[in-house]
Amino acid sequence: MTRQIVSVVGGKDAAGMSTYQSTNPARTSEVVAAVGLADADTFAAACRTAKEAQREWAKVPPPVRGRVIASIGRLVEANAESLARLVTEEIGKPYAEALGEVREIVDTCDFFLGEGRRLYGQTVPSEMPDKNLFTFRNPVGVAAVITAGNFPVAVPSWYLVPALLCGNAVVWKPAEYAAASGHALYRLFAAAGLPDGVLNVVFADGAETFRGLERALEEGTVHKVGFTGSSEVGRKVGELTGRHLQSACLELGGKNPMVIMPDADLDLAVEGALFSGFGTAGQRCTSLGTVIVHESVHDEFVARFARAVREAAIGAPDGDVLAGPLLDQKFAERYEEYLTWIQPHHEVVSGATGRITADNPRGAFTGEGGLYYHPVVVDGVRPSDRLFLEETFGPVVGVTTFRTLDEALELANLPGYGLSSSIYTTEATNAFRFREGISAGMVSVNNSTSGAEAHLPFGGNGKSGNGSRQSGMWVLDQFTRWQAMNWDHSGRLQKAQMDVADITPDLGFRL
Question: Which helix (H) or strand (E) holds 385?
């Protein structure tokens, strides 16, 4: 039977105003869930509910909140296979990758359960006697979290876990096309004992979500916004929060470069390019955008890379494949537009392009019933090409050449994104020069552009984000506010910068 899913606000189901069908992209005729979509009123009401619940949640001692996070981790671990299978069914992510995504939630919980005992402030020396200075981390209040569906459970956990640990309440809006996965994750969080209203899940389309968020900001019921999605929508979210004197946590798109130096291990580089370019069918924000390869090894690299792509298994995501289908019909339509950016001066070195069908098969695989597409490698990409400058969310990778590392850095930074990057080299000097010159928030050496760990900062600059970071201890600054306190026990008013002891030196002294 098709799952019936609605929003949950204050622990109670909230009826939808319309219905969205989340389908299996590997078998588009198969409905995974019928999703009741809420409107702006429901989103705003959820924020009011969260504000009321947050007051009591903030009073729970942080170490106890950490124990709740530990329970979430154990529950996810115990349900890992079921959750991973649901992710595979709903968005077509290969099962091995889906299982790894679920493992990332457990890793995130394992890290943050201890942070409940480490939400440290400081004692700070005062410039005056009989006076003590302190700093404290306070929760921000209510966090509105809006996430994409390409990582329907791992990326939300990057927001939800630290936000809840820090004493905030959350209103979470998952992607409609990944609603079943989002609802399952919500149920696991709720089973850990979270009080009603501390975590609320609202299913809505983008327009209603934006209107509801705008209303909540005007009412003062949202104090932090976390958004993962496109750069275009991220700008709108940033503008909206900025009008209310807030700074959103924005994790946006990428055009992630990979530089191949003359001394690179080409087999290793090909392996990294294959996974980062075409794993998850190229639908990661950290997916490889352009390979920038030294002219002396260009021909050899391209030949090996093209061969690896032609031999890669594309097929049903429950099998041993590099990639399954695209996430959803809207992404397939957008990807087909990207393919129109291929120009006469380009050379497609990977074989067939477009949708895999009986008339355009990939070997014996016809892609019947699913949103399967041929992976594409385009050589001869120029810095003025749209394929070079703009994010292409899907299985297409461009290739261009360089002569010097300075030129490679200029090319790598040119599109204006700044999420992830990679360099393949055996020289430490090249690695550190690349790190210093690249604008990306994340750098890999002899590794792919994809692959985050739960205890490292994740985030980008430029078109990829506003400098905010997720994961690790760095995300705590997104979900807490620093409060300063001074305690004067001198029995008199001591005025800073005025009533300060002055010890006079003899600055004219000479030996």
Answer: none
Q: What is the pLDDT of residue 451?
A: 74
Question: Helices 231-243 and 206-219 sit at what angle, rounded to 10 degrees?
Answer: 20
Q: According to the 3-state scheme, what is the secondary structure of 312-372?
A: CCECCCCCCCCECCCCCHHHHHHHHHHHCCCCCCCEECCCCCCECCCCCCECCECCCCCCC
Q: What is the mean pLDDT of each run of 10 residues along the chain (511 residues)?
A: 93 95 97 98 98 98 97 98 98 97 97 93 95 97 97 97 98 98 98 98 98 98 97 96 96 97 98 97 96 98 98 96 97 97 98 97 96 98 98 97 98 97 98 98 95 88 94 94 96 92 94 97
Tell me, rounded to whole angstroms, the distance of Cα 33 from its chain centroid: 24
Helix (H) / strand (E) containing 38: none
Taking residue 36's Cβ as centre, other Cβ atoms within 10 Å add up to 21
- Which residues does residue 200 pair with via DSSP β-bridges, in sequence order? 171
Provide the pLDDT for residue 47: 98
Q: What pLDDT, on a 0 to 100 scale, did the predictor assign at position 454?
A: 84
What is the token pair recorded at 365?
């695989």
HEC readout, 392-413:
CCCCEEEEEEECCHHHHHHHHH
* CA 448 to each of CA 71, 257, 270, 289, 308: distance values in angstroms, whole numbers, following the listed order: 33, 10, 10, 11, 15
How would DSSP label each residue in 405-471? HHHHHHHHHTT---SEEEEE-S-HHHHHHHHHH---SEEEESS-S----TTS-B---GGGBSS--BS
Nearest Cα to 209, choosing from 164, 172, 155, 166? 172
Residue 242 CB: number of other CB atoms within 10 A?
12
Q: Which residues of 244-267 are buried (b: 16+ CB within 10 A; e: fewer)?
A: eeeebbbbbbbbbbbbbbeebebe
Q: State yes or no: is 285 an active-site residue.
A: yes
205 CB burial (10 A radius; 0-12, 13-18, 19+)? middle
The per-residue pLDDT for 469 is 92
Residues in the chain: 511
Select which of 47, 109, 166, 285 is catalytic: 285
Residue 400: CA atoms inside 13 Å, Cβ hemisphere, count? Answer: 23
Q: How many CA atoms lie within 13 A of 13 on its CB side?
A: 10
* Residue 249: alpha-carbon gap to chain centroid: 10
pLDDT in the model for residue 453: 85
Contact indicator for 200, 49 with CB cutoff of 8 Å? yes
